[in-house]
Amino acid sequence: MELQANAALIIIDQQQGILEPRLGRRNNPQAEERILDLLGFWRRNARPVVHVQHLSHSPDSVFWPQQSGVEFQQRFLPQDGEWLIQKRVPDAFCGTGLEARLNEAGIWQLIIVGVATHNSVESTARAAGNLGFDAWVVEDACFTFDKADYFGTLRTAEEVHGMSLGNLQGEYATVVSAKQILAAG
Question: Which residue intervals define the domain Isochorismatase-like in the entry (predicted)?
Fold first, then answer.
């Protein structure tokens, strides 16, 4: 794999609310450390960083704008010169102007990390692939939660994560590890 000099790191929904215990059991306990590894690398090399913040329509959401859960975690606060994209749905491209900004900047390679794998990460990666971007999803820099499938069978976070990555691999994105991305940089 070849990492472009202007590849954008897209960090999805690293907000305080994602740490809420009520969201349930999660996988990839080291995901935030992998995200920070990538973020440090991007910042040291002056590559573009895009912070995506979810502003929910639902007062029951951990990302409802009227409470602290909507705020970025301290360790993921955007720095000067980094982009902030605020979204109202899982897909970071829908209604946000992200596609136009990336096109304007001549960025076509996207490294996608964050939460939740089966929700905003998958939705954003699908859109990126459909829009013609070279999308890479970093499997160990994403996580999700235990979730019941359509038929009511509880699936572990690992199963949900694996299925989501399987949905993306090859058709919408390329799934890689943080180590692979850092080695390619």
Answer: 7-158
129-132 long-range contacts (CB < 8 A, ≥24 apart) are 129/168, 129/171, 129/172, 129/173, 130/172, 131/93, 131/99, 132/108
Distance CA 161, CA 56 (A): 22
Residue 75 in domain: yes
DSSP characters over 145-159: B-EE-TTS-EE-HHH
CB-based contacts of 4, cutoff 8 Å, min separation 6: 108, 109, 134
For 18-55, write each residue's pLDDT tens digit: 999 999 999 999 999 999 999 999 999 999 999 999 99
pTM: 0.97
Q: Residue 50 is part of which domain span?
A: 8-184
The total number of structural domains in the chain stands at: 1
User: Is-contact 42 24, C-beta < 8 A?
Assistant: no
Looking at residue 126, which CATH number applies to its domain? Answer: 3.40.50.850
Cβ atoms of 95 and 88 within 8 Å: the answer is: yes
- Residues 146/27, Cβ–Cβ less than 8 Å: no
User: Is 32 domain-assigned?
Assistant: yes
Whether 3 is covered by a domain: the verdict is no
In the chain, % helix, strand, coil (3-state, to 5) comes to: 35, 25, 40
